[in-house]
C-alpha cells in the first residue's frame, strides 16, 4: 500500500492506471481476443496538455527544474498515457543528477513508445552503469524487437550473455545474428566459440565449414585457423590438413602460409604418422627468431611428446633455451620426461633436481624423481627426496607447515611404498599409519557434521535473493537475472520451500491457539551456528574411502600391523574405516569385518573384534566355520565381553536349529559349573546330529561331570549314561589314541582307577607322530602381507599330537597312590624325561 501511495503522489495516478491506459493491462489482453482491426493514429494531445508540456519545456530550458517537475506531474495526472511527459521528467531528473529517477521515467516513456529503439539502447547503457545486467538484457531485447535490423543491439546482447558465461544463450543470440549476416566472419567465429564453450564441438566445426565454403571471399585465414584448431581438438587431422591446403591455394597462392597455420599443418601430419612431411612444415620455425614463435615451438614439442617421439620433442624443447617466457621449470620438466623415456637416466635426474630448485612444492616431480632414483639403485637418495627436511630452516614459517609438500598424501604413500618394497616394515608403518588414522578421524568428524538433507533457512534465503534482490525504490521489477539454468531451478525450489515453511508455521500457530496454548515461535535448526568446520581441514590422504587403490592400501597396512603384532592399531583402523566408510559397498565391508575377526583372534580383548565376528555370524548363521571363528575370538579374550551372552540368547531364540549355538552355550554353562544347563544344550545338539563324535564326547563329559554333584540321587545311572556316550564316541573315531585317553581320563575322574589303568596302557601302546599345527586360511595372515612365513626349526614348533606323555603321567599318579613307586618312577623315566 505504501508503494502504491508513493507512486500516486509522484505521478498523480498509480502504476496500474498508467499501465492500463497504456494498453498493457488486462483490458489489452482481452481486446487481443477480439477481431483484429486496423489501428488508427494515436490521438492527438489536448490543447491543455500541449500547453502544459510547452510550459514545462520552457521551464526546463530556463533551469527552473522544480517548477517544471510539478507541472509535468499535473500532466501525468491529466493524461497518463502521454510519453512526452515521462520523457521530459527523465530529462529533468537527469539534469538534477538523480539518475535513478531519470532512468525510471525513461523506462515508462520507453514502454509507451516501444518502437523507439534508440531510447531502449540508451536505457541499456544507463542500466549497465548501475550494474543491473538483467535490465540491460531486457532493454536490448526490446531494442532488437523495435528494430530487428539493429545489428549493434543484437551483438551487444549476445556479447553480454557470453561475458556472464551463459554460453548457450549467447550461441543462440549469435546464431540469430548470423542468419541476418551469413557472410560476417566475426559473427561466425563467435558462434563457433560459443558452441565450443557449451561442448558442441561438432556444431562449431559445421558453422565454420559452412562459412568458409559458402563465403570464401569474406572468410579469411583467422577463420581457417580457428577451424583447424577445432578439428585438431576433435582428432580430425586429415580434414584439418585439407582445409589448410585449400586456404593456401585460395588466400595465398604465391606466398607461404602464415607460420601458425603451417605449424598446425605440420602437427596434423605428425599425428597422421608422416614425420618427414611434418618436419618440412617446421623448417620455418628453425629459421625464424625464437622470440616471436616460442609458443608455436612449444606446441610442436608438446605434440611430439604426446606422440611418444621423445627425440623430436627434445629438439624443439631445446630450442626454447634462453627464452624468457618459456625457458622455465615447465620446459625442464618436459625435457626430463623425454630423457627418462629414452633411458637417459642421469640427464633426467639432473633436470628433475633443477625443477625442484625452482618448484620445491611440485609433487609430481618428487614422485617421479624418487621412482627413477629407486629404479637406478639409489634408494637413500629416493628417500631423501620424499622424506621431511630435518633442518628447521628448510621447514619455513609455521603457517606454511600445514601446506608443506612432505604432508601431501601422494608423497606419504610413495615413501611408504618404497619402505615396503625394501622390507623396512617399521618405517613403512611409521609413515603410513599416522596419515591413515588422522584421515579416518577427520572423515568420521565430517560424517557427524555432514550437511543435512534439508537446506538451512539462511541458504534458502540467499538463493531467493538471486532472483528477487532488487532495490525497493525501483519502479520496474521482474527482469530475469543472468543465472545458469541450474541456479534458476535452485532459486525456484528455495522460494517454494520458504513458502511451504511459512504455511507450516501458520498452521502450527493456528493449532496451538485453537488448543488454548501459547504459541512460541521455534526458529528452525537453520538459525543454529554451523559446527566447527572440521570438513574444511585438509586430509592427509584425500579420497581414502572412495577408490580401490586406497582401500587396498588400508588392507595392506592392517596386515602389516598384524604381522608386526600391533593388533590394537590394526583393529582401530578397521573399526574406524567401517564407521566412516558408509559408501564402501557391502563386499568391501564384509572383507574388512573378516579381516577384523582374523586380527581379533590374535588379541586378548575381543571388544573390537566382537562386532566383526558378530556381523559375520548374523550373515551366515548356519556356517560352522564362521561359528568356529566367533568362538575362537570369544574364548581367547581375557576381558569379559558383555554383549556375548545377550547375543547368544538372541541367536538361540531366532535360530533354534543351529547346532554351534547349542554347543557354545553348553561350553559357557560348563565353564561356570552349571552342568545341568550344559547337558541340556548338548542333548539338544545331539538330537539334531547324533552321529557327530564331538557332540557325543561333550554329552558324555557332561554326564560324568553331573554325576559328581552332591544332590544327585541317581548317580550310578548318570555315570552309565556318560560312559555310553563316550563309548559311542570311541566307535565313531575308530578307537584312536585320543578316544582311549578320554575314556581313561573319565574313569580316572570318577575313581575307577583299575579301568583307567587299562585305557592308559592302551594309549602308551599306540604312537602318534607330532605334526605342525593346522592353520586355517584366515589364520595365515603372514602369507597375505608378503612377509616370509615362519619356518619350523625345532620340535617346539610342532603341534602336540602324541598323548603318551600325558597318559604316562596320569598312570604314574595311580601307581604312586597304590604304592608302586618304582613302577611310577620308571614310567616317568621312559615317557616324561627330556
UniProtKB/TrEMBL annotation:
Residues covered by region (Disordered): 512-534
Key words, A-Z: TPR repeat
Classification via Pfam families: TPR_19, TPR_8
GO biological process: transcription by RNA polymerase III
Segments passing through the bilayer: none
TPR repeat boundaries on the chain: 49-82, 83-116, 151-184
GO cellular component, one term: transcription factor TFIIIC complex
UniProt feature, compositional bias: Acidic residues: 520-530
SUPFAM superfamilies: TPR-like
Keyword set includes Transit peptide: no
Family matches, as PANTHER family: GENERAL TRANSCRIPTION FACTOR 3C POLYPEPTIDE 3 (PTHR23082:SF0), TRANSCRIPTION INITIATION FACTOR IIIC TFIIIC , POLYPEPTIDE 3-RELATED (PTHR23082)
Protein name: General transcription factor 3C polypeptide 3
Lineage: Eukaryota, Viridiplantae, Streptophyta, Embryophyta, Marchantiophyta
